[in-house]
Every structure is written in structure tokens, then in C-alpha cells.
Prior knowledge:
Radius of gyration: 12 Å
Largest sheet: 7 strands, antiparallel
Helix content: under 10%
Number of strands: 7
Distance between the termini: 9 Å
Structural class: mainly beta
Shape: globular
Strand order of the largest sheet: 4-3-7-1-2-6-5
Low-confidence stretches: none
Mean pLDDT: 86
Strand content: over 45%
Order of helices and strands: EEEEEEHE
Amino acid sequence: MFTIEVEDVFEAQGKGGVIAGRILNNSSILKVGDNLISSEDDGVNIPVKQIQLMNYEVGIQNIKHIGILTNVSVTSLREHVGKRLHKK
């Protein structure tokens, strides 16, 4: 299962909301087109439009931070700060 903890959210001008998070479990692969759901609210689907690895220069095994672009508004994403999202 792929799991992240949401640390912050912000808006990418004209593109959508961005989730900045810390990877907790990467035993499965997250791809563009996948959906993330909250561990506390299984009714909310957050579609993944783009993925950005924050510290890509340190080697693939040490990557812990990720940015995920989505078409969900920042206002809606703010309720997920501090919570865990996992791949559906």
C-alpha cells in the first residue's frame, strides 16, 4: 500500500491544489491517474494529476517527501493536513 502523511497544501496557479507530504509506506507504486483516499474518510477520492519527488538527488531508497498535483481545491485539501492518505 502507498501511504503519505499530508504536511501542507497549496495552490499551483492555474493548475490546481498541491499536496506536500511525507511518504510512510511505498510498498506499491503511485502513478498519475491513481486516486488517494483518506484513512479517516473513505468517501473522498483525490485524483493524482502529477507527482514531484522533493529530494530526488539523494537516491531512490531515501526519498521521503512528495508533492502531488490534483484538481481538488485547496480549501477541500486543507481538511486533510496532518492526516494519512493512501492509494485506493
